[in-house]
Specification:
6-stranded mixed beta sheet; 13 helices; 4-stranded antiparallel beta sheet; 17% strand; alpha/beta; 38% helix; Alpha-Beta Plaits; binds zinc ion
Length: 485
């Protein structure tokens, strides 16, 4: 790809990504087969950081107390540009790639069913491309690449912000899989608080002496009833959902312990806090009724994701430069088959990139990059590696993730991301303009972490599940290793 009038450094990142499309694909597919749940992304981060290290980045592992987090830095001085993304899989959605029907790789195992594997490959490829171009063309600045674990549990980035890792950052980029090549600005996603409610009672024989027991599961059930009643009075944009993580062991033992894990979401951070506090009151009422003790543990708390308009316009210009991948008939047919299987409209793959027409429409989902987006101006690059109309966290959203559809979408994403970063290195005054407009965009709202100040990351989250499935998953790991040339 050669475009006239393009800055030579920008041309060199586009060429680098094109030349290294095989390495990008191998990295993406390797992570697809690792399929590691949040907090257990050990092989994933090891592969990512070793590639960045081989390519000259300085690596700080285990930042903010997350064993599977890392910060890779290259360069010096201003501007300081951060890139961050996630790479965790989801439970129970192991799915063979390139197969348009339900077919597990390992029955019951975790699987990528959204595409965070491609996120990681896009970020690493773009970072190395930018570093090479900076060297070749004498551009100054600092690139900070953040590996952010456990996005599905909304965990890591609020800790990075709280611990000062973004204090020196001028602008930040987040890249995420989509079925579109697009960017947006304004409020994109919602705030969320994730918390455990643990109830403690007293066990007894459920048939012989139930009057001696205090049933912790009763408290979970009563909290559920209270939340269901409360839901009727939610404002638009508020959502809450839960899973019971401990419901006792067997019916003839009255459960002395039971627990439920809730997500509370609201379009803004203050609203999420109010919703969470109301949930706490309902939990206290449930504990009182069931004569149990209650312990509340906030697992994660994130601000709504926002994006800066000036940065979005820079990204959009690069989307228009790079363009949408050209899909083959076979890729279109695979997409339609999958859409048929999932019972959604058979529209095939997106033919063109999306236009930037105005502020985003805020959605109910959340992402832990929200806190970054209130600390520094941030842009998001959405790249087209998945199938339109297929909902994330469904097996069908895993079926394209190690196919040419994911690879071509990732290549477009890495080009847009690298080219956009280059724009801020070539013209550092763009960063100053983004920072100025960012202040205005915040509209006087002061960012204060929702995360409790003394909160520690849950290191053993998902460990037992991952340990139990790894031996069966290992034979499916790729044998080859990505090499960036
Ligand atoms: Zn995601």
């Amino acid at each position: 790809m050669a475009v006239s009038n393009l800055h030579p450094a920008k041309q060199s990142v586009l060429d680098f990504v094109e030349r290294n499309r095989q390495a990008l694909s191998t990295l993406s597919d390797s992570i697809f087969y690792f399929a590691e749940l949040g907090m257990q992304e050990h092989r994933t981060i090891e592969l990512m950081t070793s590639l960045l290290e081989e390519n000259g980045f300085t690596i700080e592992r285990g930042i903010s107390g997350f064993q599977t987090a890392a910060l890779a830095t290259w360069g010096s001085g201003a501007p300081v540009i951060a890139i961050h993304t996630e790479y965790d899989a989801n439970p129970s959605n192991s799915q063979r790639s390139g197969v348009a029907e339900r077919a597990e790789i390992v029955p019951g195992a975790p699987g990528h069913c959204e595409g965070h594997n491609v996120n990681a490959a896009v970020m690493v490829t773009a970072a190395i491309a930018v570093k090479r171009a900076m060297e070749e063309h004498g551009l100054t600045g600092t690139i900070k690449v953040f590996g952010a674990p456990a996005e599905e549990q909304l965990l890591s980035r609020p800790y990075f912000v709280r611990d000062g890792f973004f204090d020196d950052v001028d602008v930040a980029f987040h890249n995420h899989i989509s079925d579109q090549l697009k960017t947006d600005y304004g409020l994109i996603q919602s705030a969320a608080i994730s918390a455990d409610f643990k109830f403690t009672g007293e066990s007894a024989h459920a048939a012989v002496a139930p009057w001696k027991g205090r049933d912790a599961l009763d408290a979970v059930v009563l909290m559920d009833v209270g939340m269901a009643q409360y839901r009727e009075h939610f404002q638009p944009g508020m959502t809450a959902h839960r899973v019971i993580t401990d419901g006792g062991e067997q019916p003839n033992v009255i459960p002395a312990h039971a627990a439920v894990w809730w997500y509370f979401r609201h379009p803004d951070a203050a609203g999420a806090r109010v919703l969470f506090e109301r949930g706490c009151e309902i939990a206290k009422g449930a504990a009182l009724m069931a004569n149990c003790e209650l312990q509340i543990n906030v697992r994660a708390a994130v601000w709504p994701v926002r994006a800066n308009e000036i940065m979005a316009k820079v990204v959009q210009s690069n989307i228009e430069l790079v363009g949408m991948p050209t899909w083959t008939d076979a890729e279109q047919e695979f997409a339609r088959q999958l859409q048929r299987q999932a019972g959604v409209a058979e529209k095939g793959l997106q033919p063109t990139f999306s236009r930037l027409t105005g502020p985003a429409k805020q959605i109910a989902a959340s992402n832990d990059s929200g806190d970054v987006s209130w600390a520094v101006p941030m842009a998001r690059v959405w790249f087209p590696s998945n199938i339109p109309n297929i909902t994330f966290h469904h097996w069908a959203a895993g079926a394209a993730l190690a196919t040419p559809i994911a690879h071509k979408g990732g290549e477009a994403g890495a080009k847009v991301l690298a080219a956009s970063i280059l724009d801020f290195l070539i013209e550092p005054e763009r960063a100053a303009a983004a920072k100025q407009s960012f202040k205005e965009e915040l509209g006087g709202v002061t960012y204060e972490p929702l995360l409790p100040a003394d909160q520690r990351p849950p290191a053993d989250l998902n460990q037992a599940v991952m340990d139990s499935f790894r031996p069966a998953m290992e034979p499916h790991y790729l044998k080859e290793r990505p090499i960036f040339a």
